[in-house]
Design a protein that fits this description.
The complex is a heterodimer of chains A (339) and B (244). Chain A is mainly alpha-helical and 339 residues long. Chain A is globular. The two termini of chain A are 39 Å apart. Chain B has two domains: 166 residues, Rossmann fold; 67 residues, no CATH class.
Amino acid sequence: MSAIDTTLKDAIGMQTNKGILAWLLSRQVFWIFLATVVACIALSVLTDSFDTPRNIYNVSRNFAFVGIIALGMTAVIICGGIDLSVGSTVLISAMVTTMTMHWGAPLWIGLPAGIAAGTLVGLINGFLIAYAGMQPFVVTLGMMSIARSLGMVLSNNQLISSFGPDSKLLFAVGGGAINIGTVPIPTPVVVLVVLAIITAFLFRWTRWGRYLYAIGGNEKAAILTGVPVRLVKLSVYAFVGFLASVTGFLELGWLGTVSTGLGNGMELTVIAATVIGGANLAGGIGTAFGAVIGAALIEVIRNSLILLGVSTFWHGTFVGTFIVLAVAFDRLRDKETGE
Amino acid sequence: MTTVLELENISKHFGAIRALDDVSLALNAGDVVGLVGDNGAGKSTLVKIIAGNFPPSGGTVKIAGKTETLTSPADARSKGIEIVYQDLALADNLTAAANIFLGREKTNRFGVLDYKGMYQRAGELFTELKSETRPRDLVRRMSGGQRQAVAIARTRLSDPKIVLMDEPTAAISVRQVAEVLALIHRLKEQGIAVILISHRIPDIFAVCDRLVVLRRGTKVGDKRVADSSPEEVTGLITGAIERA
């Protein structure tokens, strides 16, 4: 009896990976994290301007906008989808908040209205993909065009910068900071950290998270085992739409106005951050932490080029190289495990 | 002996094609029935009807004496029918335990996944199956036999009345075949009825009590394995023997 107990315990306790170090080394997100840290240390040594509180403050706020959406994009990519409409969702949600507040509504109406608009965009994407069985790429490509166009229509080609009675509050949320001790942390960064913790929890500790990975790994198996595949897919696009509208709201407060170009091309930066952070476009793989680190690395690269006096035209080259490296790493690891 | 599954005059037509024609079959608790037939004989159609993938065009399905309409695989599962699919229906990127519990994860009362409980139960199931599979291993890194063990362990999670196995011994090593057959014996001991679909006649003779032969959509043989022979079965499958 006791012998069986021991072997059972051994079997349950055993993992394929030998130890923490080997496990870390096999993680793409670990290497990206290392690259980001090394870049930050190098910049602190090489320049006087990187490790100033002001610069760190700006860098962290800038990547928070992309990072928040990258959390949702990671969820979409884990379950084997893609969402090209997030940049336009940022615009439409910011525009809805702008218009409602411009007409005199308070923040507590303007904010939910914008969030509802963005989430609705996600729900429509999700419905067409999950229930009508359409291709995510095509559906969200269409939505990218529609949402941006509607945002433009809504603005009526005006540049609005008056936001009614709650305008100060709006600017304070998006452009402000929360003091932790004596250190001011930009509000978007605080929001990113909170959302990242929630997302990481959802991925690892809930059925919803488990189903995302299962659908991305083998959708047919998920259907056969009774996973509510359609509902999960619907929810995941609504989730990314929600996060895009949170970013829309924060960016609106930071910028103090909305131009119709808001969020233009942002979907590609978000997807880049997600892929650099270790999500696999084939589905089934990705982490919340990776999404944040991927977004951080992209912003650190951009910032470092400016500080080092290198033309920002080089930005794309560096980001692109990291994307290719990330995928190459994936291939290399697969080879090692015999595939 | 209680009858767990009765199929009465089951037919299935796809347009003008008669995939199944008037097939009747009864299964008692603890029966291990081999279902054999050539490609296109109607085996998978019959299995899909029992598994709830699609309804029959005619006839009735009774489970434990009650007439049932199976609307989906999940519905069939909730009525005590478990299936081991030929491609096993496993997600490669998940662990063995995650696959076993897929679609019916253990959670605590706050809806948080109970990893410890799931690893524990998965480990027990593998021990019961005398399999070397480890609950925390990713399915991607497993051998064919280990994958099979995961798929079979999954059926043991609930307390099924009937387990359908679609070609479980087709793609695994000889040693693993013996293990799978031993497992089928263990299911039988617990009063579970097993339907084994296989091309491997020796496996049928090693483990089944009864065998049912389908040819071109009709049942041409239903007899005790002890009263039959591999030669007769082959004759029935090919049509060299008309009926037995």
